[in-house]
Amino acid sequence: MSGRAVFRFAKFPLAVRRLASMPERPRDTVVRASGGKKPESMRTITLEEHFATPEVLKASAELQSPSRNNFVKAVEEKLLDLGKVRIADMDAAGIDLQVISLTNAGLDKLDGPRATSLARDSNDKLAAAVKAYPQRFAGFAALALQEPQKAAAELERSVQKLGFKGVLIHGTTKGVFLDDPQFTPIFEAAQALDIPIYLHPTLPPKPVEEAYFSGLPGQLGFYLSTAAWGWHVETGLHCLRLIGSGLFDRFPKLNIIIGHMGEDLPFSIARAESVLSRDTKHLKRKISEYFQEHFYITTSGYFTVPPFLCTLQVVGADRILFSVDYPYSPNSIGRNFLNALPVSTEDLGKISHGNAERLLKV
Ligand code: MN
User: Fold this and answer.
1) Is pLDDT above 90 for 16?
2) More confident residue, 1 or 211
3) What is the SS3 assignment for the chain?
4) pLDDT value, residue 63
5) How far is the CA of 47 from the centre of ligand 1 (A)?
C-alpha cells in the first residue's frame, strides 16, 4: 500500500477501516456489529506468560551471552514476581487468567541432573503460586529434556500432582530438534495425559548463530537471531520437522501450541506443502492437514492485524488463542490489539477465552 493510501485510509472511522483492511472475507468471521458484546467484558485468558526463579536466573546467567542476560535483566523484577505485581498488571489490562511458564533460561545447556533439579524446583514454585491464586494463575510445566525419561516422569507429576495444564518446551535441546527419537517419551506422556505441548522459541545453536547472525553492527545480530526473526523461523521449521517426521501419525491425539501468530507458518504452509509433497509418501495426510488439525496458534508478541488475518484465513477462529508474552510484551498493548480485532463477537469470545477453556480445561 502506498504512503498516500495509508494517509487517506487513516481518516476512515474505525469500523470502515476494519472492513477495508480485509483483502477478502476471512473464513469463519464477520466484522463485529456495533452493539455486540465488548471485548473488555469478556473473560480473557493468556497463555504464553513467563516467570523465573532466582535459582534459574543465576544458573542461566553463567551460561548465556551478555546480550541475552541484558534482555532478561530488563524485565527481571516482573519475571520473579508471582503475586501482586503480576496481578496488578493483569488487572490494568483486563486479563483474568495467565497460564504461566518458566522463561527461556538455557536449562538445556546445563548438565542433566542440575537441569532436572532446577526444572522440578521451578515447577513446585509455580504450583505454589497457582495454589495461592487459583482464579488468576494456571501453569505449564518446565522440563529438562537432557534426561527424557525423567522429563516424562516430571511431566506426569506436574499434571497429575501439581495440576498443570500442559508443558512448555523451548525449541532444541543441545541443538537437537524434538523429532529425534530420544524425545519419544515426552510425546507418549503428553498424549497419555491429554495435555498440549507449547513449543516456544529458543536461542540458536552456536554454529547457526555464527553462520547466520554474525558480522552486523551492535546488537543487531543478537536481535535478528532471536525475537526479531531467528526464533520464529526456527520454530516454524521445528513444526515442519515434527510434521515431516510422521510424529502425528504416531501420536494422532497430540496437540501443539505455537506462539507469535504461528511462527510464520500460516504465511508459508501452502508453499511448504507444495514442495514437501514431492516426498511425503510415508505420511498418512497432507502437510497442511497436520498443521490445521494438530496446532493451535497464539497471538503472543504479534499485535498487528495483517498477520492475524492471514492466520485466521489459514486455521480459522477455533485455533487462535489470545496471548501476550508478558513481561517481554506489555499486557496493555495486547489488550488494545484484542479490542481492535476485526472479528465477530462470537469469534472474539473463542480467541479471548473459549478456545483456551476447551483446550486446557481452565
Ligand atoms: Mn515467550
Assistant:
1) no
2) 211
3) CCHHHHHHHCCCCHHHHHHHCCCCCCCCCCCCCCCCCCHHHCCCEEEEEEECCHHHHHHHHCCCCHHHHHHHHCCHHHHHCCCHHHHHHHHHHCCCEEEEEECCCCHHHCCHHHHHHHHHHHHHHHHHHHHHCCCCEEEEECCCCCCHHHHHHHHHHHHHCCCCCEEEEECCECCECCCCHHHHHHHHHHHHHCCCEEEECCCCCHHHHHHHHCCCCCCHHHHHHCCCCHHHHHHHHHHHHHHHCCHHHHCCCCCEEECHHHHCHHHHHHHHHHHHHHHCCCCCCCHHHHHHHHEEEECCCCCCHHHHHHHHHHHCHHHEECCCCCCCCCHHHHHHHHHCCCCCHHHHHHHHHHHHHHHHCC
4) 82
5) 9
**pTM for the complete prediction?**
0.90
* 337-356 average pLDDT score: 97
Q: How far is the CA of 327 from the centre of ligand 1 (A)?
A: 9
Q: Which of 89, 108, 264, 325 is catalytic?
A: 325
* 290 CA to centre of ligand 1 in angstroms: 24
| Ligand 1 centroid from CA 49, angstroms | 7
Nearest to 362 by CA among 19, 38, 70, 44: 44
81 is catalytic: no
Domain 36-360: top CATH class: alpha beta
pLDDT score recorded for residue 36: 67
Q: Write out pLDDT tens, residues 86-145.
A: 999 999 999 999 999 999 878 888 999 999 999 999 999 999 999 999 999 999 999 999
* pLDDT at 335 exceeding the cut of 80: yes
CA of 324 to the centre of ligand 1 (A): 8
Q: Average pLDDT in the 280-284 region?
A: 98
pLDDT band at 70 (very low <50, low <70, confident <90, very high): confident
Phi, psi (deg, nearest 5) at residue 11: -80, -15
Facing residues of 166 across strands? 140
- Rounded mean pLDDT of 269-281? 98
What φ, ψ does residue 324 adopt, rounded to 5°?
Answer: -110, -45
16: cell is: 470502515
